[in-house]
Amino acid sequence: MLAASLHSPGALTLEERPIPKLGPRDVLLSVEATTLCGTDLRIATGQKTNGVRRGVVLGHEIAARVWRLGDGLTANIDVPAPGTQVGLAPEIACGHCEPCASGRSNVCANMRLFGTGVDGGLADLILVPEAALACITPVAAEIAPPLLALAEPLSCCMRATTRLPIDSHARILILGTGPIGLIHCALAADAGAHVMACGRAARLEPARTMGAQVTTDAQGDTLVDEVLEWSNGMGADVVIIAVGDPGLVPIAAQCARIGGHISFFAGFPAGAVASIDPNLVHYRELTISGSANATLDDYAGAVEALSSGRVDLSALITHEYALTQVSSALDAVRTRAGLKIAVRPKGATAN
């Protein structure tokens, strides 16, 4: 099988590998699509090394089809039957640490991840070990594989938004119009909220397509003024920081209304420091929260939302590449040539 593996930081290599050996309670999936994100680019270029195993196959946003089961598994009882289209949640939680025991398996203390420590989806086939069988999530109805691969970023966004007061009466300000910000636009619009998105000018039209009623590329005090005008002087009920820029933190506080919520959704650079006026938090009674990764329940909800058609993210898929073109696909991520970039391995048909 063909696979894109990282033999050293910055050295991504396409290579032929033997089909992974199937244990009695393992599953082999035929990969149909893997979408790329900035994390994949940082791993491939050597900027991210923490938790990355030498020789690992990259890719954590995965759509696949069940191909083979270990002889200790029963189809439709232990796992979906061969031929079933599935999404694969990337988080393999231990299930027994304190975060897992308290319902926060998304921040498991012993987390392993497909695409960093465990071979991921930039390959024709992917081995799912027994410990990760719960990560296999069947669809309610088959959909385009690149769309199904978006269940991973969607699940992370859903985890954040379900913990925020987003409803038809809320005004939601989304800072950042990359793919994550656009997914947040879609979720807020699906809830009937009034949505304002702020980001680069080239991404404002996609933000409107995904449900934002108001868009702007304003910054600093100008942005604060525009938000106040949009919200009749009150400020936003929820501000979601969807891009890892520490400079947005004080702006978010100025844009939030009394009793408002600020979500630190994006990851920030290591060592980043943000300044915020504590009196804004104090006198406006602001709630600030973080959100990281997703639980298996979050992921199952994302697969259901996509495969049922309740949430439509198809406009995000702008480019598709064969696995043999993975370097070009990563270049497209680096140059922001599109929104979401999908890689399409040949799957089991190549073996």
Automatic annotation (TrEMBL):
Main EC class the enzyme belongs to: oxidoreductase
EC assignment: 1.1.1.14
Transmembrane segments annotated in the record for this chain: none
Keywords attached to this entry: Oxidoreductase
Domain Alcohol dehydrogenase-like N-terminal: start-end pairs: 23-134
Domain Alcohol dehydrogenase-like C-terminal as annotated: residue spans: 179-307
Cofactor: Zn(2+)
Gene3D superfamilies: Medium-chain alcohol dehydrogenases, catalytic domain, NAD(P)-binding Rossmann-like Domain
Stretches assigned to coiled coil: none
Gene Ontology MF: a single term: L-iditol 2-dehydrogenase (NAD+) activity
Name the record gives this protein: Sorbitol dehydrogenase
Gene name of the record: gutB
